[in-house]
Amino acid sequence: MRRSTLNVTVAIGFLAVAIGILVARANPATAYEPSVYAGAPTITWFGFALALAIAVGATLSCRGGQQGLGIGLGGLTVTAIVSLPILRNYRFAGMGDALTHLGWTRDIVTGGTAPHELFYPGLHAIATVLHFAGGVSIERGLLLGMVILFVPFVVFVPLVVRDMTGDGLAVGLAAIVSWMVLPINNIATHMGVHTNSNALFLVPPVLFAIVAYLHRRSTLERLPLDVSPFSVLVFLTGLALLLVHPQQMFNVVVLIGAISGVQYLASRRYDEHPMLEHPTTHVHTLSLGALFGLWALGNERFRQAVGGLVTGLLAQDIGGGTEVDQRGTSLTEIGGSLTELFVKMFLDSAIIGLVVGCFILVVWLGRTSLDGETRSLVNYFAFALFPLSAMFLIYFLGTPTMAFRQMGFIYVLLTILAGIALAQLVGGLSSVITRPGANAVTALVLGACLVLGLMTVFTSPLIYNPGQHVTDEMMSGYEDGFDHGAEDVPYAGMGYDPYRYDHGINGISGGDTISGASAATGSVNATVFSEGNYSGAYPTDEYYFVVTDWDESRELDVYRELNYDRSALEGLDTEPGANKVISNDDFEMYAIDSAP
To answer: Which of 123, 451, 549, 554 could join 32 in a cystine, given CB atoms 3.0 to 4.6 angstroms apart?
Structure first.
C-alpha cells in the first residue's frame, strides 16, 4: 500500500473513533443501563469497529512509524471503549468494592482518613488529586483514575515485546492481543473501580523495567554509587504497583525471584550462555520482597486475607470446584450452561493460552528461529509461570476469588508472550502459504478474538451479569433513605446488601458506618419473600426493603425470577404492612412492619 493511501486510511480511523467518542458524549445515559454495549449509540460502535479494523490491518502490515500509528489508533479505540461510563456520563459504576473505594476516597477528601492509612491508596490518591485539581466529583475522579491506570497496559505491552525481540510483527501482534484485555475475567477481575484489577494494568511497566535492566547494557549510563538507572526504574514501578494493590506487587516479587533462580541454575550448569551475560536480579528480589513485607505484614486486611485462605484450604465445602458446581446448576435453571458461558468469557483466553503453551514447548525443544537473547528472556517468563500457576492452584482450593485474580496476572504475561508466539506461528504459516495470506488469516482469527474479548470487558446480560451502572436516582434514593430512616431499623435488599451504598455516600471512617453481615443491613429471604410473607422475610419486626432498577434487572430479567418472583415484588403496593416511603425512577424503599 502506498504511504499516502495508508496515511489517509489511518486518518479515517482516527476520525471514526473521534466521531464515536463525540456521539457517545452527546448521548448520555438517562436511566439505568443493564448493558454498556446496548446503551451506547450504534454510530459509536460503527466508528469504533471501523477504527479497530484499520488499526489491526495497519499494525500487521506496516512497520516503523506507520505501525506505530496503527498501534496508537487501536490503543486509543480500546481506551475509548473502557471510558464509555465516563463518556456516557454515568454517575458511577460498581455496586460492590467500588462503592467501598468511593467511601475511602471520600474519607481522604474530607480529612477523615490519611492516604497512607489505606492498604492500597494509589487509585484513591489519584481520584483525590483529580477532585481538588480538576474540580470533578469524587465519583468521576475514580472513574478517570481507572482509565489513567488502564492506559499503561496498551502502551507498555508492545514496548516490552519490542525490547525482548525487536521483531516488528511480534510487536504488532502483542499490541492486538493487549486490546483483548485478557486479564479481565469478570469473575474476580473487573473493568471498573477495583484496585486489584486496576493494578494488573500497571504490571507491563514493571516488566518493561525488568526486561530493560536485563537486556540493555547501562555501562555508560550509571547513576551515582554505580547504580543502574534501570534498577531505579524497577524499584519505582514496583513501588507504584504496591500502592495500587500489594497482591500484584507480590506476584512481581515471585516473578523476579523466579528469574533470579533461573539465573542461578544457569550459572551452575553453563560456562557460556546469554543468561550469564545478564545482570542478576537477586538484589531486586530481596529488596522488593522486603518492601512488600514491611508494607503488608503489619496490615490487618492482609492478615485477614491470609487467614481466609488458610480457612478455605482446611474447609471441605469451600473451593473452586464447589463454586463451579453451584453456578452451573443456577445457569441451567435460567436456560444457560457453563459451556456457553465459557465460550463467551474464556474462549479467546483459551486460544491465546494454548498458542503460548505450544510456543513455550517448541522453544524448549529448540525448534524456533529466536536468537539466544530473546530465547533467554522468553524462558525467564516461561519458568516464572510455574510458581505463579502453583499459587493459582492453592488459591483455587482455598479462596477461588483470589485464584481468578491470580489468573489475571498470569494473563498479563501470556499477553506479552503471545506476541512473540504468534509471530513465530505467522512465520511458519507463511512458509505454507504466502506472507500476505498468513497475515490475512491471522487478522481474521485475532479480529474474532478481539470482538469476543471486548464484548466481555464489561459485565452485561450477555454473560448473565447486568452492568453495575449507578445512577443519580439510585444515589439520591439511598442517601434519602439513610438520612431519614428510623434509628435501629435495618435496611434489606433484594439479593443485595445495601451497606455498600452507605460506604459510598457517608464514607467509612465514621463510627456509625453500616457494615456488611450485621443486624443493620442484609438481604431478604428469597423463598419467604416470594411467598408474599414480607414481614417474615427478614429476622426483625420491621425493616426497610430497598429495591433498584439494577436489582430488578438482575433478579427478574437476567436470572428470570430464579430467586424472587415478580408478582411478590408487585404485591408490595397492596400489602397493608408495606408502605412506600421513597420512590423515584430507579429506586424504591418500603417500610415493612409485622404489625401495621
So the answer is: 549
